[in-house]
Design brief:
There is one protein chain. The chain is 25% helix and 27% strand. It is globular, with a radius of gyration of 21 Å. By secondary structure, it is α+β, with helices and mostly antiparallel strands. It folds into two domains: 315 residues, Fumarylacetoacetase-like, C-terminal domain (Fumarylacetoacetate hydrolase, domain 2, Alpha-Beta Complex), CATH 3.90.850.10; 66 residues, no CATH class. Belongs to the FAH family. Keywords: Hydrolase, Metal-binding. It comes from Methylobacterium nonmethylotrophicum.
Length: 401
């Protein structure tokens, strides 16, 4: 499959089976001064169309709370707004006609959470960040030392198992234990807040980098969408943009490393689980990443969910249950094994983003999420929060159903 570089094409961002799945999303409708819930359906010409089903489901949250969200999506009547190609082409801010609709992230009122250190490779990179104290120049030498002490084949080690605890005892005795190893192979998963509800950016929009960061990377992940009663109802793709220097200086800077304007990208669409696509498909999927810079730099890699150290259902249970309720549901990033170390500049400094990088995250069942990187303050500002959404839906007569 050809990479998405200069143009947005609906066929390129849809899953490999096209419109066979139950695909939901959100668009901004300028004439309504607000967002709409849409279903992707095949039009008379065979092309993908966006059908506004907001009258039936004012929010994606409402759709996910249905007894059978996929069936509810397929059964909802609505208005055809536009072909997907036209809306997708109008989404990048620098090419947008503000009088026409554009794509948004396919979630709204859900809490946006993330699981950290769920793959052995990324776990070791977090240990390296910690020891380097955010300095990329020191990373190469530390990587060799950590590999010598810990080893690089931890995939078979079940977190919290007696074997994992025995390894912990050895590393503690050697002075090599780390808080990242604690959540990577210890009994408790790391679950943190990635972004505020309604703040995520969608496919075609710009993703944000903190201007103070000099060492950062994309994190291509699958994100599960979970209803308030802990049912996992669907999945989408996400970019958990990470500032390695901030987090490396101190784990207490995790919030600053993760939660910045436009730093959470989700999309292109939410694929709801049905007979043709389920959590087992997610467990078997491979997520690929491509970064293409304006300087000609290219980076690619992939992350197989089968190598995750904690099962996705176990991560959801760690996020939500008797001690944590989410009445509007939640989105959970599952983590990534892809931690790029290829040098982009000076030898030993590894990878870091540059403004203008095009990031493409793809999986067969979920399609492709495409974003261009900008500094946070140069991305579109987030001004439409929960209060604005409620007022907009009330003015349209869509609340109270």
């Amino acid at each position: 499959m050809q990479p998405i570089l200069d143009t947005f094409d609906a066929r390129a961002i849809l899953p490999e089976d096209g419109l066979a799945g139950a695909l939901a999303g959100r668009i901004w409708r300028p004439e309504l001064n607000g967002p709409s819930t849409v279903a992707l359906r095949e039009g008379a010409s065979g092309a993908a169309e966006l059908v506004d089903i907001t009258a039936a489901f004012p929010t994606i949250r409402d759709l996910c709370e249905a007894e059978d969200p996929a069936a509810a999506l397929r059964g909802a009547a609505g208005e055809v707004v536009a072909p997907l190609d036209a809306v997708l082409a109008n989404t990048p801010p620098d090419a947008r006609d503000p009088s026409k609709p554009w794509l948004l992230a396919p979630v709204d009122l859900q809490a946006v959470k993330a699981a950290g250190v769920t793959f052995a490779v990324s776990m070791l990179e977090r240990v390296i960040e910690e020891r380097a104290r955010g300095n990329p120049d020191a990373a190469a030498a530390i990587r060799l030392e950590v590999g010598r002490l810990v080893g690089d084949d931890l995939r078979r080690l079940k977190p919290g198992s007696p074997e994992a605890m025995a390894l912990k005892d050895v590393l503690v005795a050697q002075g090599a234990w780390s808080q990242y190893l604690e959540v990577g192979i210890g009994p408790d998963a790391e679950i943190f807040t990635k972004a505020q509800p309604l703040s995520s950016v969608g496919c075609g929009q710009e993703a944000g980098l903190h201007p103070g960061s000099q060492w950062n990377n994309p994190e291509p992940e699958v994100a599960l969408v979970v209803a308030s009663d802990q049912r996992i109802v669907g999945a989408t793709l996400g970019n958990d943009v990470n500032l390695r220097d901030f987090e490396g200086r101190s784990a207490l800077l995790l919030g600053k490393a993760k939660d910045n304007a436009a730093s959470c990208a989700l999309g292109p669409f939410l694929r709801l689980f049905d007979g043709g696509f389920s959590l087992d498909h997610v467990r078997r999927t491979v997520v690929s990443l491509e970064v293409v810079g304006e300087d000609g730099f290219r980076l690619s890699g992939s992350s197989a969910l089968s190598e995750i150290s904690r099962d996705p259902a176990d991560l959801v249970a760690a996020m939500m249950g008797g001690t944590h309720q989410y009445p509007d549901g939640a989105v959970l990033f599952l983590g990534t094994m892809f931690a790029p170390v290829e040098d982009r500049g000076a030898p030993g400094q590894g990878f870091t983003h540059k403004v203008g990088d095009r990031v493409v995250i793809r999986s067969p069942g979920l399609g492709a999420l495409v974003n261009r990187m900008r500094h946070c303050q140069d991305c579109e500002p987030w001004t439409f929060g929960a209060a604005a959404l409620m007022r907009n839906l009330a003015a349209r007569g869509l609340l109270g159903a």
